[in-house]
């Protein structure tokens, strides 16, 4: 009887495995590849990570190869994988400014691009090692440098749509993020990217809505793209209040706390992991929230002070020394003694980490060109030398001209 049961279980398990494999294969069987290659438009904000799935492929193709072109028909094409599709890159290893060949990965026929930059905009092809394409994307990475923040609590409204003849330029907003804090007043926001509607778009590019694509799409003619370049992405911010989820504390820990509280004072135990960092006085510091992305709801607190975006978002005040950029990083320029404390990081409404910052005026500091302050000091020094040299040359040229044309006054007695 046991042998019969074992046989039945093995047969059922084998059937389930075959069913799972057939389901994965049927995904590509149910999605036929288009006879004429059409580009699927997609837009993202800079520093975001995104995935481009290869939605169709022939049955005989076991591994896909991804290609990249800056413009359609360009003679320079990048191969974004080895010819077996086994290139893997972890997101934590990808840094801002790295080459695109370092910031991508291929998993289950899909292309993953980490920390995308505006120069990564272009056409992405899913094909074979022979150069046969069967699916393509038109990717538009919009820069966040000129992003405009709109605060609903202050009565501000997003930019109005622009109408220039048949051209309609507008902002398409994403969904609201979760509240970045719980138990206290928090904030939530939504990112808006530039889109346009025009009947002059190329028909080879697939649109979600008729005649609507992102402003940097390859489907937009160069004249219209230059006009829409002035419409920057937007960030809409509003306040929110949500309760915190109850956390269960281990009984053993509570028993120890009860015993310590009876004997003496109860010790301070941090709710999140705390990392210590010592910073030299007068130098800049950038703090990142662990596991956070630009599209996540991230908040920062200093001890018991809430650093709201209404006051600390980059661009609110040009003279800000402490601010939060659009990538959710906390910047401290020219560190002062008053900056000492614990900086807490919230991610998706949950407090996840803390950074205890100490400021010291002693110790050696090795200058490095990777330090922004060092680069700024070198640039200012070079500019000063160039200015002095230019003044010196200009004075001598004037004296030579005066001597040649005898227009220089004679100061001799």
Automatic annotation (TrEMBL):
Q: Where does the record place it? A: Membrane
A Pfam family it matches: V-set
Where on the tree of life does the source sit, at the highest rank?
Answer: Eukaryota
Question: Is-annotated flag, keyword Glycoprotein?
Answer: yes
Where is it predominantly found? Answer: membrane
Q: Which GO terms describe its cellular component?
A: membrane
Q: Give the stretches traversing the membrane.
A: 382-405
Q: Which UniProt keywords apply?
A: Glycoprotein, Membrane, Signal, Transmembrane, Transmembrane helix
**Ig-like domain: residues covered:** 267-345
Q: How does it sit in the membrane?
A: Single-pass type I membrane protein
Keyword field contains Repeat: no
Signal peptide bounds: 1-18
Protein family (similarity comment): Belongs to the FAM187 family.
- Protein name (Swiss-Prot/TrEMBL): Ig-like V-type domain-containing protein FAM187A
Source species, please? Acinonyx jubatus (Cheetah)
**Organism classification:** Eukaryota, Metazoa, Chordata, Craniata, Vertebrata
């Amino acid at each position: 009887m046991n042998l019969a049961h074992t046989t039945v279980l093995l047969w059922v398990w084998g059937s389930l495995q075959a069913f799972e494999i057939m389901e994965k294969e049927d995904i590509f069987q149910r999605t036929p590849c288009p006879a004429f290659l059409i580009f699927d438009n997609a837009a993202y904000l800079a520093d975001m990570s995104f995935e481009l799935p290869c939605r169709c492929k022939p049955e005989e193709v076991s591994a896909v190869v991804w290609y990249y072109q800056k413009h359609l028909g360009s003679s320079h094409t990048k191969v974004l994988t080895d010819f077996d599709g086994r290139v893997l890159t972890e997101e934590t290893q990808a840094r801002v400014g790295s080459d695109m060949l370092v910031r991508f990965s291929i998993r289950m026929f899909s292309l993953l691009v980490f920390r995308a930059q505006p120069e990564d905009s272009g056409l992405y092809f899913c094909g074979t090692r022979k150069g046969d394409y069967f699916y393509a994307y038109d990717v538009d990475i919009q820069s966040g440098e000129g992003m405009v923040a709109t605060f609903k609590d202050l009565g501000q409204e997003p930019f109005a749509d622009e109408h220039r003849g048949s051209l309609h330029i507008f902002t398409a907003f994403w969904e609201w993020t979760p509240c970045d804090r719980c138990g206290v007043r928090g904030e939530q926001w939504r990112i808006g990217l530039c889109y346009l509607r025009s009947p002059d778009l190329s028909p080879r590019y697939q649109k979600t809505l008729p005649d609507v694509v992102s402003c940097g799409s390859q489907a937009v003619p160069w004249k219209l793209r230059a006009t829409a370049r002035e419409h920057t992405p937007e960030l809409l911010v509003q306040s929110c209040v949500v309760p915190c989820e109850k956390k269960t504390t281990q009984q053993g820990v509570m028993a120890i706390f009860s015993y310590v509280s009876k004997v003496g004072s109860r010790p301070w135990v941090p709710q999140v992991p705390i990392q210590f960092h010592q910073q030299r006085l007068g130098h800049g510091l950038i703090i990142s929230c662990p596991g956070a992305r630009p599209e996540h709801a991230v908040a920062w607190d200093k001890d018991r002070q809430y650093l709201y975006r209404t006051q600390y978002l980059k661009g609110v005040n040009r003279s800000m020394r402490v601010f939060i950029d659009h990538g959710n990083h906390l910047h401290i320029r020219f560190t002062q003694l008053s900056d000492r404390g614990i900086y807490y990081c919230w991610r998706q409404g949950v407090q996840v980490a803390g950074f205890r910052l100490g400021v010291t005026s002693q110790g050696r500091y090795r200058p490095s060109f990777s330090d922004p302050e060092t680069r700024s000091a070198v640039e200012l020094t070079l500019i000063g030398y160039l200015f002095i040299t230019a003044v010196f040359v200009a004075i001598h040229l004037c004296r030579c001209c005066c001597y040649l044309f005898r227009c220089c006054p004679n100061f001799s007695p």
